[in-house]
Amino acid sequence: MKEARPALRYAKAILNLAKEQGSDEEVNNNMKDIVATIAESDDLDAMLKSPVIKAADKKKVLDALFGDKVNNISKGLFNLLAENKRMLMLESVAKKYSIIYDYYKKMQVATVTTAVELTSELEAKIQEKVVEITGNSAAIENIVNPEILGGFILRVGDVQYDASISNQLNELRREFDDSHYIPKI
């Protein structure tokens, strides 16, 4: 994680430049696309992290891959990282940008783990719970995990609300263990 601090500095500089030009949301979308593309392609990730491949060649690949899909600020980031021979930090910078952009816009992401896919009706109820817990609304990200049996686990920042059936069963098991319940044999 020795690249975390420089990545944060690059991300802050890019955000400040994007705010000045009024394209901070567009750059955020670019950064999300960059992170998603790198995550989908092991070859691209390996190429960016390779010490054998020259920074100029890495930049050419990024220009060919993203071309007109990204704005000039994002292309400028490619140039800057290539000049400073820090292309391996691209994914980290893009992730940090999205984090500080969300903080700047006072946006939260609520991660909801459910046993089944969320419907719009359930999503509205979860949004109410998020507002009740934090006082603000949030973008909802759904993770499906059948092991929780039912209910949901809501995580917003460092706050977690566990209303899953598996958690309720575990609490019941602990109550029986604590009460020294001895069944009749």
TrEMBL record:
Alphabetical UniProt keywords: ATP synthesis, Cell membrane, CF(1), Hydrogen ion transport, Ion transport, Membrane, Transport
Topology relative to the membrane: Peripheral membrane protein
Homology family: Belongs to the ATPase delta chain family.
Domain of life: Bacteria
Function recorded in the entry: This protein is part of the stalk that links CF(0) to CF(1). It either transmits conformational changes from CF(0) to CF(1) or is implicated in proton conduction. F(1)F(0) ATP synthase produces ATP from ADP in the presence of a proton or sodium gradient. F-type ATPases consist of two structural domains, F(1) containing the extramembraneous catalytic core and F(0) containing the membrane proton channel, linked together by a central stalk and a peripheral stalk. During catalysis, ATP synthesis in the catalytic domain of F(1) is coupled via a rotary mechanism of the central stalk subunits to proton translocation.
InterPro entries referenced in this protein's UniProt entry, alphabetically: ATP_synth_OSCP/delta_N_sf, ATPase_OSCP/dsu
Name this protein carries in UniProt: ATP synthase subunit delta
Organism: Tenacibaculum platacis
Subcellular location: Cell membrane; Membrane
